[in-house]
Design brief:
Chain lengths: ~270, ~300
């Protein structure tokens, strides 16, 4: 399945946003802000870029995706449901007792989840292991890893960046969900995190800055990454936390909070109007 | 016991890894700038394309191993025990044990027998940390023969394994044809005065004590508990029933390690007194391995004193 029509992809992203809100509302728990900010990125990856097959989720030659910011599981589950890996019905069980849809993704419970994540800072190293494995076997698959911008405050991310550079992992494409906010506020204030492009460049990455909600820009960046040889790529995707729901946009408080009924109704209405 | 030939388990690990690498193309080895000390350099020389020096970045190393494992590789990961199990604990917990990935953590330089490097490098809590992780198998070998078996055997066992190894050279206790089984302890001797349950580099101390006690007419048995998890419950209960005294000895904190494991089994199945020998809730210090073993009272002589 490869959808190239931009309007069609935008429509899917809207459906994913709707599923995100429904899951978090139904569970009365979860992380809507960061899930909404990466919805367009996931749409482009799963419907336009990645070589994956919903009928064969464990195909050894498939492209891999690591959601390093595992708390944005609602976005991943919504995408997998839209792509046919899991049923849309199952989304209602998110975070509930005996559900496969754990608060953070479990690779042994959900078809299409390539790595169990949740403890921040570990996904890039895992993605490196996958990319090295691909090179060792000459399997040719690509590995995608989505990082949160707050997440890169973890030192292990920079250990992993050195590894990706050392082994010239050009089959690795990292996407940074650069929404600028973390639980306690702005990333620039909480940890003084800035000059992100320079940082990644100096670690040996090919960097690109795009509007993380612009489908066309995202597709172009992923295509450029594919033809970039000898070094890993990072796409710094400028996003808006809570994107698509007006009262959630750019508000750190919506990092990990569920909407009340009135807010939920308002959010669903807003998504329909677009 | 032949005390002429002494080999550190880290050395046998390095040699066995090369043999395993020839037999199994899925084996990859990762190290964190310590390949000359952990002996993975032997593998690196033979199979450079399957060896990854991750630099001084243990957290990155363990998570990278997890990534390899998701793609069907069998990563053997080495560093000193304090950095492998301690520095990268969260990575082992969340990215290896929780998803039950096939990563083999082979940690050298465990215990106070590290010697001169002192407390920061003497890992005394790793058994405790590793055995409480679901899905993890914990093995602590005592000699070259057993280590070579373990290195190959764990490749056949799906799921995470922690193999605890030493820097300190210990006598070769077992013949080449000795058979071992994960989860099955070995009983040495039939004595009923005491069971000395030991693991890792102090098993040879227990055997030395057994031989000296025999000269005095005191017959004890030694239990080589090479697998800490799953622990051999049957053997522990049998020994408690058949012998007058239970003594555990380990180059590890007495809290959470072998002694605690034995107490857990006995408290639930056959309550009796247990003497736990080991490092008593303190950090190590610099010195020669032999001096430290005396200082922390984990020698054959110390075991003999328990029988007075």
């Amino acid at each position: 399945m490869k959808i190239t029509e931009q309007k069609e992809l935008e429509k899917i992203a809207r459906k994913i946003r709707k599923h995100i809100i429904e899951q978090v509302y139904e569970a009365q728990s979860g992380h809507p802000g960061g899930s909404l900010s990466c919805a367009d990125i996931l749409t482009v990856l799963y419907f336009n870029q990645m070589n994956i097959h919903e009928k064969e989720p464990k195909d050894p030659t498939r492209d891999r995706f690591v959601l390093s910011k595992g708390h944005c599981s609602p976005a991943l589950y919504a995408t997998l449901a839209e792509r046919g890996f899991i049923s849309k019905e199952e989304l209602k069980t998110f975070r509930k007792i005996n559900s496969n849809l754990q608060g953070h993704p479990d690779m042994n419970k959900v078809a299409g989840v390539d790595m169990t994540t949740g403890s921040l800072g570990q996904g890039l190293s895992v993605a490196n292991g996958m990319a090295l494995s691909s090179k060792l076997n000459h399997d040719g698959y690509r590995v995608y890893c989505l990082l949160g911008d707050g997440e890169i405050e973890e030192g292990q991310i920079w250990e992993a960046a050195m590894t990706a550079n050392k082994y010239h992992l050009d089959n690795l494409c990292v996407i940074l969900d650069y929404n600028g906010l973390q639980i306690d506020g702005k990333i620039e204030e909480v940890k003084g995190l800035n000059h992100l492009e320079e940082k990644w460049k100096s670690f040996g990455f090919h960097t690109m800055i795009v509007d993380g909600h612009n489908i066309e820009q995202l597709i172009n960046a992923f295509e450029t990454a594919k033809i970039t040889k000898g070094k890993p790529t990072i796409i710094l995707a400028k996003t808006i936390k809570g994107k698509g729901i007006s009262f959630m946009e750019n508000k750190a408080e919506w990092h990990g909070k569920a909407p009340k009924e009135e807010e939920y109704q308002f959010a669903i209405k807003e998504l329909k109007e677009k | 016991m032949n005390e002429q030939i002494k080999i550190a388990t880290r050395q046998s690990y390095g040699e066995a890894l090369v043999e395993l690498g020839k037999e199994n193309k899925d084996i990859v080895v990762l190290d964190a700038d310590l390949s000359s000390a952990t002996k993975t350099e032997l593998f690196a020389k033979q199979f450079p394309e399957r060896f990854f020096d991750m630099g001084i970045a243990e957290q990155d190393m363990l998570s990278t191993a997890a990534g390899f494992a998701t793609c069907g590789k069998i990563p053997y990961v080495s560093s000193f025990a304090v950095f492998a199990a301690g520095r990268a604990y969260d990575q082992i917990r969340n990215s290896i044990c929780y998803p039950n990935l096939n990563v083999k953590i082979c940690a050298t330089h465990s215990g106070i027998t590290v010697g001169e490097d002192g407390a920061t490098h003497q890992m005394l809590e790793d058994i405790a940390m590793m055995r409480t992780l679901p899905n993890m198998t914990v093995i602590s070998t005592c000699d070259a023969t057993q280590t070579k078996w373990a290195v190959k055997e764990i490749a056949k066992r799906k799921g995470p394994v922690y193999l605890r190894l030493s820097r300190y050279a210990t006598p070769v206790l077992y013949e080449e044809n000795q058979t071992f089984e994960i989860g099955k302890a070995l009983q040495i001797g039939e004595g009923t005065k005491a069971s000395i349950i030991a693991t890792g580099d102090v098993v040879c101390e227990a055997i030395k004590a057994k031989e000296k006690l025999e000269e005095q007419g005191i017959l004890v048995r030694v239990i080589d508990m090479h697998t800490i998890k799953p622990i051999d419950q049957e053997m522990i209960i049998k020994c408690a029933k058949e012998t007058e005294k239970i003594i555990t000895i380990e180059d590890h904190n007495i809290m959470g390690g072998l002694g605690s494991s034995v107490c857990e089994v006995l408290a639930e199945n056959y309550p009796c007194k247990v003497v736990r020998m080991g490092i008593k809730d303190t950090f190590g210090k610099s010195g020669k391995a032999e001096e430290l073993m005396k200082y922390f009272n984990i020698t054959a002589e110390d075991i003999i004193k328990q029988m007075a």
